[in-house]
Design a protein that fits this description.
5-stranded antiparallel sheet; alpha+beta; Uridine Diphospho-n-acetylenolpyruvylglucosamine Reductase, domain 1; 3 domains; 19 strands; Uridine Diphospho-n-acetylenolpyruvylglucosamine Reductase, domain 3; Uridine Diphospho-n-acetylenolpyruvylglucosamine Reductase, domain 2
């Protein structure tokens, strides 16, 4: 049972903003989802640790959100507290060739900072619509680059509600996976190490990356980015194309006609629409090609 008065008092003591009965649709890039009991904007690793301990001690359900760019939020909402790692915990510091980002910093902002300082290695990550913490959680990547190529360490809150440091070699980083995936630990900051480069060449590479995204991806529609993980031996978009599923719809959800690896919200989609559509796509692809597609976004329910 959530005592909102007690939780509000704790948030005031920690200097964190709290919004009761907050609609998740405002915080998910797919732009749908019901309400959570309360949304708390985390402002530091210490605050996050204290909030998590408070909720664990009281058996209160809690979830973690960054930018919500790889998340499906249930139409029924979330019967618990959402900890938002956003603009209140988005600091970026530079120490030589290392960039230290708080978990809520946008990955794009970190890429821009690196470019301004003539640090190369993150160009292909520019444009991925998420936070640095979220990017490490799923080992985000694009155009041949992944977070594992630049990360050297991270700080996180463990299941003991204490802060810990972990080195990259211990993160079990692989395709869309890290040691944090599916665990109750929470990333609070990420340290990346880059190489020295030419700021103008880095900027040109970033511009080229964004041009590719704009020309090939349906950025004009709400979505969660790539909807399915890449199956071994093929590509989700290729398989969906082969099955003639471009433009396939369920309610307000549609397989993008521009890039079939994306399921988009045409403006009135619900989470149920997206899940129904994805289920049918998986079924048809399995029947016609033998490949089993796996959803990439996390389902928050």
């Amino acid at each position: 049972m959530i005592d909102l008065n007690e939780l509000t008092k704790l948030c005031e003591e920690l200097g964190c903003r709290i919004t009761p009965e907050c609609s998740l649709s405002e915080y998910i890039t797919f732009r749908f989802g019901g309400p959570c009991r309360a949304l708390v904007s985390v402002n530091s690793a210490d605050s996050a640790a204290k909030l998590i301990k408070y909720m664990k001690d009281r058996s209160i359900r809690y979830g973690i959100l960054g930018r919500g760019s790889n998340v499906l939020a249930s139409d029924d909402g979330f019967d618990g507290v959402i900890l938002l790692f956003g603009g209140d915990i988005a600091g970026i510091e530079v120490h030589g060739r290392q960039i230290v980002c708080q978990a809520g910093a946008l990955l794009a902002a970190a890429c821009v900072r690196a470019q301004q300082l003539g640090l190369t290695g993150m160009e292909n990550l520019f444009g991925i619509p998420g936070t640095v913490g979220g990017a490490l959680y799923m080992n985000a990547g694009a155009y041949g680059s992944e977070m594992k190529d630049v990360v050297v360490s991270a700080e996180y809150i463990g299941e003991d509600c204490e802060l810990h440091t972990i080195k990259a070699e211990d993160m079990d980083l692989s395709y869309r996976h890290s040691v944090f995936s599916g665990r109750n630990s929470v990333i609070t900051s990420v340290t990346m190490e880059l190489e020295e480069g030419d700021p103008y060449a880095i900027k040109a590479a970033m511009n080229e990356c964004m041009q590719k995204r704009s020309s090939k991806q349906p950025l004009e529609y709400p979505s969660a980015g790539s909807t399915f993980k890449r199956p071994e031996g093929s590509y989700a978009s290729l398989l969906i194309d082969q099955c003639g599923l471009k433009g396939f719809t369920c309610g307000g959800a549609m397989v993008s006609e521009k890039h079939s690896g994306f399921v988009i919200n045409k403006g009135f989609a619900t989470c149920a629409d997206v899940l129904e559509l994805c289920g049918k796509v998986r079924e048809i692809v399995k029947e016609k090609t033998g490949y089993e597609l796996e959803l990439e976004p996390v389902i928050l329910k």
